[in-house]
Amino acid sequence: MSDAKETQKDLQSADRDGGNSQGAGPPTMSVAEMLAAARGEKADGQQSPKAAQSGPAESVATPALPKPVADRAAPAAAAGAQGTWRINLFETVPLLKRIMKLRSFQFLVVLPNVLVFYLFFAVALFGNPMGNQNLMIMIVWILWWFVLIVFLVPFGSRVWCTVCPLPFFGDWIQRRELVRVRPGKTGALKNEFHGGTRPWPKKLRNIWMQNIGFLAMALFSALLVTRPMASLFVFALMVAAATIFAMIWRLRAFCNYLCPISGFLSLYAMTATLELRHVDGDVCLKCKDKSCLTGSENGWACPWGVYVGKLDRNNYCGLCMECVKSCPSDNISLFLRPFGTDIHLKHYDEAWKAFIMLVLAMVYSITLLGPYGWVKDLANVTWTGNVVGFLLYSLCIILACLVVLPIFHLIAISAGRALAWKEKLSRKKLFIGYAYTLVPLGLFAWIAFSFPLLLVNGSYILQVVSDPFGWGWDLFGTAEVPWTPILPDIVPYIQTVIMMIGLLYAIVKGYEVARSLYQERQSALWSFAPTTVYLCILTSVFLVFFTG
């Protein structure tokens, strides 16, 4: 089979929402199948009987959701969740639209990040080996992490992916351009691509590898935040992986399937107040080219494999803005929306992502901020040399993420299922559906963790900015600023307020999930009651560690 035919047949959409997927991972449908589905046709070009009977308004199949969810959630792609507001930012701020449409936009925002990123590499190699005196450690793991968790994710969705330097070299290998677009033909895509041409293996088209990658990084968190060379090794490995993947597989396979940072962002972007969506669904239905997915002379094919016409969640859209440039109908925009608009997890891998992230927020809080010296000793294996202790520490974390919390979750949803006996839903549907409650709770747990991290260590940032290599410089006159924790006595109160807000959102949004699953209000209340108790217990555990 020729490469072009193989691409046409096998190229997968990297977004399970945008691609109307049925599988467990981001890519599940070929471009040919996706375009046919969007037009209400079979893959061979014939109109399907259902499309012929239902007419244009129903020709786009809804995402693979349980039936009550699909009935309630499908309109969200065109006009936001029912009963919610949206503000079209391109209409409100025309200058923003002009900036996003600039051919050079992404290059201009990525390039400074690339330069700073490799400055950090130099600092890790030649700078002070002490974590609190190293620019890379202080900026990346203290300042950047705080800004990412507290501001970028809740208010900007996956905007970090817009400026991320990791895929920079891989993108160049595939495009051979930094700014200009290469019109052409590469399989089903309307751009001239180089580099990798293979489709990602079907069995790996999910986010399990991202889950494992983030969990593996977390096991070495004590090393990453204190040893510049450890952080250098991890980031260099990710850059190398992103580049090698681009030489073998199509588009941004690394970002879609392996990058642990991408996995973190994909989960919590569901809560964000920013979304990229189509303006008018009918325009997408009538569009024959689907340039947002396949590219055009004005923009590259979506590196994430997202078809905006079916995009109804933030999870797998990296906000590269290529679709904004490619769309011939000018039908794509950025929107402001209420916090936590996306409320449906769809697969087990997403549910386990929520389990892993919540547990790791607690692990980081205990290991890095807690008064438990013996835990720090177990985690810092290169310092203590206690390999057996580190293995036990790692085993406890792995079991908590993959087994213990999921079992408690299963107990809660099983109890709710028994209480709501009048409407019997499958355990799978409830297990995945109610796992969403851990998304807002987990995000606020990470925010609660990040505040003391910055308030306690912020003065170190002032020092290392003036003396980035630890060579006795004082560029801004702040190299001798003494270490001064900010408001240490009120930090537990701040964390308590943050966690209570997270609990409130978890309960409110969880009840929305329940109402989308159950026809009767009483059944939804009874079903969600045990999960509410379970959420309160989880929050209480966090508060014990934050305030104890």
- Characterize the overall form: globular
Strand content: under 5%
Count of domains: 2
Helix/strand class: mainly alpha
Number of helices: 27
Largest beta sheet: what is the strand line-up? 1-5-4
Whole-number mean pLDDT: 87
Instruction: Report low-confidence residues grouped into runs of 5 or more.
Output: 1-25, 38-82
Biggest sheet layout: 3 strands, antiparallel
How helical, in percent, are the residues? 55-70%
Rg over CA atoms, rounded to whole Å, is 24 Å
How many β strands by DSSP? 5
Distance between the termini: 64 Å
Outline the structure in words.
The protein is mainly α and 548 residues long. It folds into 2 domains: 253 residues, no CATH class; 183 residues, no CATH class. Helix content is 59%, strand content 3%. It has 27 helices and 5 strands. A 3-stranded antiparallel sheet has the order 1-5-4.
Q: Which characteristics define this entry?
A:
27 helices; mainly alpha; 2 domains; disordered N terminus; 59% helix; 3-stranded antiparallel beta sheet; 548 residues
